[in-house]
Structures are given as C-alpha cells and as structure tokens.
Model the fold of this input.
Amino acid sequence: MLEVNGLTKSYGKLVAVTGVSFRADHGETIGLLGPNGAGKTTIVSIIAGLLSPDSGEVLIEGKQVRSDTDPVKLKIGLVPQDMALYDQLTARDNLTFFAALYSLAGAKAKQAIDDALHLVALSDRAGDKVKTFSGGMKRRLNLAAALLHDPQILLLDEPTVGVDPQSRNAIFENLETLKKRGKTLIYTTHYMEEAERLCDRIVIIDHGRMIANDTLQGLHKLLPVTNVLAIELDHADGFNPEQMLALAEVKSTELEQGTLRVGVHDLSRGAPVVLRWLAENGHSYHHVSSEQPNLETVFLTLTGRSLRDSK
Amino acid sequence: MIPFLALVRKDLRLFFNDRRAVVVGVLVPIVLASFFGYLFGGQGGNAETSKVAVLVIDQDGSDISRSLITQLAGEKSLDVKPSTLDAAREAVRKGKATAAIVIPKDFGRDAGRALFTGASETGASKPELGLLYDPSHNVELGMVKGILSGAVMQAVSKEMFTGKSGREVVDESLARVENDTQLPAEDRKALRDLLGGVRELNERRDRESASGPAELSGGLTMPYETREQAITSGEDVKYNGYAHSFGGMAVQFILFMGLDVGIALLMLRQSGLWQRFRAAPLSRTMLLGSRTVSASLMAGFILLVLFSFARVVFGVRILGSFAGFVGVCVAFSLMTAAFGLMVAALGETVEATRGYSIMATLIMVMLGGAWVPTFIFPKWLRRLTVIVPTRWAMDGLDGMTWRGLGFSSALAPIAVLLLFTLLFGVVAVMRFRWRTE
Done:
C-alpha cells in the first residue's frame, strides 16, 4: 500500500531525515514514534507531497506522486498537526469546502459529510461555527475533514496534541473504527501510550534516523527483560537486592520505597523462583504484581535518553 | 471547476464574515471620501469655500489706508478684520489668521510721492507694507499678495489723482521739479506737463463738483475682468469634487484590501490549512488564480458600493464611457489582486511584510494622486508618477466620471493597469514558495 524507501531531507546543514524506510500494508497502522524535532512531521510531509525529499522515494500502490494534481493524491488524507479549519465557518461549511477541494459536490458530498460528522460524533453541532467548539471537538473535526474523499491512507500528524483525556479517547475510538474499516494509518506521536494502543508496527525515529521498526512485541524483545515483578516487602530495611542476581532467572533488581522490582525474561518460570527465594530467606511481603516494560523503556534502552525529555 | 469555485466562494464568505474588513473596506472610505469631497469643492463646486483670514493693522489712518482697507474688505475671497500689531502677530502664530497686513504711519503720503517720483520724503526708496504670514499657507499668501497689489495701486492712484492729499503731493512734486537744478531740461518739461495736467484735472473736477456733479471716483484699476468657466463633461455639467475623492479613497482602500489578501496568504502558508490545500490535488494555478478572482471580486464590490453611494448621496455620475469605467475598475481590481499575491510571494514574515507593504501602498496612493491632485507635485515627480499604477487608475476613474471622456481615453489606463497585473502576477508566481519548508 505505502512504501517509504531511503528518505533523506536536509534544511541547509540540518539533516531532518536520513535513510528512513518502512512500509505499511492495507489496514495496517504504523506509529512514527519519536521526541519533538525527531523528523516525524518531515516524513509525513514528504509522504503527503508537501515536501520533496533530497533522496529516496514514496510509493503509493507502487506509484510516486508526480505532480500537484496527480490522482494518486486522492488515496491520501492528511490530518495536519496544526488545526486546519476556518473558525468563522460552521462545521458543515468547513467540510463542504474541503470536500469541494476533492471535487465532491451535491449529494455525494452531503453523504460524505454526514458520514464524517457521524464518525466523529459532531452531527448535532454541524450548524455551529467552529469558533464555538472546544479544542477536542476541533481536533475531531480536523480528522473528519481528511476523511471526506474516502482516502485509503490516512496521515495523522500528532492528532491529539493539546486535547483532554476524554477527547483523546474519543479520537482513538474514531481511529479504531477507521482501522476496522481497513484504512491504513500512519500515526506520528511522542506519546508511547498512543502508539502502544493503536499501532501494529512502530517506527522509532530519533534525530532523523530510524532506530527501530518492529511490532510492539518485537520491540520488547530488544529489551534485557520482558517482565518486571513488583513486590512490596513487609520489612525492606537492610535488604540487599543485588544478592538475588545470583539466581539464573533474575536479570535485574531495584529496591525503591519498600518495593522490590525484579526483572525476568520468563514470568512463568521466574516468578516462582523469586517468591520461593524470598520465603526461604525470611523476607515476607504483602503484595505482588507484574509490570510489562513500555515504549518509554524501549526508547531509553535504544537511545540512552528519555522519550519525553529528549532533545 | 468545483475546487476553484469553492476556493473563491470561501474567500468571499470569509471576507463578508469579517465585519472589520467590510467596515474598513467600505464605510471608512465613504466617510473619508465624503469629507475630502466636501473640502475640495463638493457638489457642483458651489459649496462655500473658506475665506482667507486676513488682519489689517492701520498705523497710518490716512485716506489711502482707509480706502485700501475698504477695497480689501470687498474681496469675496478674503475675510478682513482690523487688529493691532501684537494681536495680529499672535493670531498668525496660532494659525487663526493666514496673514496680517501692517500699514505703517505715513504710508499714504509716501506711497503717493513714490508713485510719481519713486522716492519718499524720508529718503527710503518706497514705503513698506508689512506682511506677517503663516508659512504653512504659501498658496494663500500668493493670493493675498496679488489682491493687495491691485488694491494698493487703486487706492493710491485714486487719491493721487482725485484726493486732497494727492493735490498737495502734486504741488510739492511740481515745486521740487522746478527747483531741481540737476534735472535735465527735457525731463523737467515732461514732469511739469504730467503734474500740471494732473493739477488741471483736479481743478476742473473741483469746479464741476461745486456745480453739483457726481462723486469723483477712479484711480488706476485692472484693465480687464475675468470670465471663469469650469471645463467639465458638458456646458451645463458642474464639477463634482466627490467624484475625485471617491475615486481616490476607493483606490486607497482597495489597495489595502489587496494587501490584506497578500498577508492572509502569507499567514495561510504557515498554517495547517496550507498543508491541507497542498495535500489535495490542486494546481498552483488554481490556488493563486482563485485568490486573484476572489480578491478582484472584493475590489469590484468595494468600487460598486462606493460609487453607488456617491451617486445616490452626492450625485456623482459616470459622465464618460460606462464601458470605460467598468474596464478601468476591472483592470484596477485585477492589478490589486496581483499586487496582493506579489506581497505574499515576496514576504518573509508577516510582521515585516505588513510594514513594508503598507509603506509601499501609501507611497503608491500618494503618488497616484488619490490624496491630493498630482498637479501640485514638482515637474520631475509628476513625470515619475507614470510608473505608479494608482496614477493610471486615478486618471481612468477621473476621466470616466467627472471629466466625461470617451472609451478611447480609458484604453491607456486599462492597458497600463493590465501590464502591471501581468508584471506583479509573474513576480508572484516565480517567487512564491510553495513548499512548507
């Protein structure tokens, strides 16, 4: 469906993107994960035809976008990071205008607009001016505007920036519906939770370079541990967690505020060994839970830096 | 075609939704044009023009000075009031009077002698009239000096030829001629004949006066009268100052509207909307072309409203070719749209572009004669204005409205405005940065 091969783009001496390649199949959701300034928006802009790459190519169903009016563009819907709406117009007037940009008019346009408004749950506000909308509603309408021409590929450039958790959840439900309809989604974010929830594959970008491209499970395998046992000890004073590293199943240990975190590769084999060792050595506990490492941990492992604080 | 029409319709809706833009684009020029039209002659040129305030300080108190003041007061273009020197100086300084004429002591006597001999009794070549003036009113000063010259000549000559003090001066001058041993004989004879003739004339008038003739009048007067005729589109058509002022204000505010279009396009480039436009299968020609059409329609709307208002309220009529008027309006609207696109193409930041382009617009408006007629410009500047599109717009609008010229007179303004449209359009297309770098 979408192939990105060896994209490179520089602004003067600043290399924004270098050697990025990935592909997205029909109905697949690809997350472009990386800190702000990593080059995600540049990649999306090149795919959408807003920017020309210095080298590399973007193929949509095997075809490159050759001109401003290339029909291949009809297969792409773009949801820009910045709000792309006219505040002075109503929601329906906005969508009517954006539909017309794709030569949609009359009953066909009306049907597309009604469907899009229904999807983002704004049908009852169709006649209201956008300036009266909340940030979350604008974000949803911003999404709806990209759906009118029924594109197969949807490019979503941080579509949840600046919205409250409830609105973010609503947008996610919209995207999950689109996913079920077989749309291919390219989703840029620096929120690991979003990528974890939505994406089939995750491409991690840092300083314009692609440092990983795998499924969530595949990325977890890059980690030294795949599970962490969190054990709240009754008496943590004097406990030395490093002595547990002698156990073959234990890969890491950490004691913080009475909670012992033990990293293991295989939870079913490691957990009984760890709990037995604690009992045999007279360390009682009152709560046990397991944690899975998240993308934050993956990014930290791959780059040595935190995802949120990365510059 | 659907995207093109949608883009144009969207621009027009946004324009009319923005009350500020409509107010600035329509109401403000109407107010300003009404004001300037009233100042520059108003309807039919019959509106009362303001008189030039002149103060007169009579330190002489002679028959000549009184006669001079009477004549000045009779001038319809002057508002003459007596004053003292200090009060007059203060009034001129504060701008309450344009000029003050100081008639010094013995002016009447010395002026009479200077009329015949060129020298006063005190040895000075001629008596001096003081003229205090406001330097910001140079045009009015010239008018005051002209009127003053005529009035002085008439007052002095009248008194010299027919007044009592004139007879004394004639007698004194005759005695001086007779006693001047250095005067050549031929000159003495000529002066004796002239002055003797004046004395004889006075004596004859005295006799006629004693037997009851009409009151004496005379003195040297201007040997002509002027018959003023305003040349407009027809004999019975009076000049309407509102025609020019509405044209000028329309040109100015439409240019500002074009500027807004350019700035808006510049801002659009920095927004998500531009990304959405560029992601859609739209050609560059369509994106810029739709802007050109929508901006031209807005300009046309402003022209229509302004001239309709001027027609209904102030009786401004298109006395020349209507087709020519429409042609000039269309050409100017297109030129304005292209100007806006060029602003967007050349601009780097919104703030800097706004500053530069406002300056450029104001210069174009000023040089185009939209504020004040170009005839008051220096000659070199008048020649320079042919490179300013607004000059051609103003010429075209003036020609088709109050001058009442035919379509052929609109061809040059239309052609030049379309050339400017082409020039600005080419620059806009070549320099426009399509990519959202």
User: Anything to note?
Assistant: DSSP finds 16 helices and four strands in chain B. The interface with chain A takes residues 2-3, 5-7, 9-10, 13-14, 17-18, 271-273, 275-284, 435-437 of chain B (CB under 8 Å). The two ends of chain B are 29 Å apart (CA to CA).
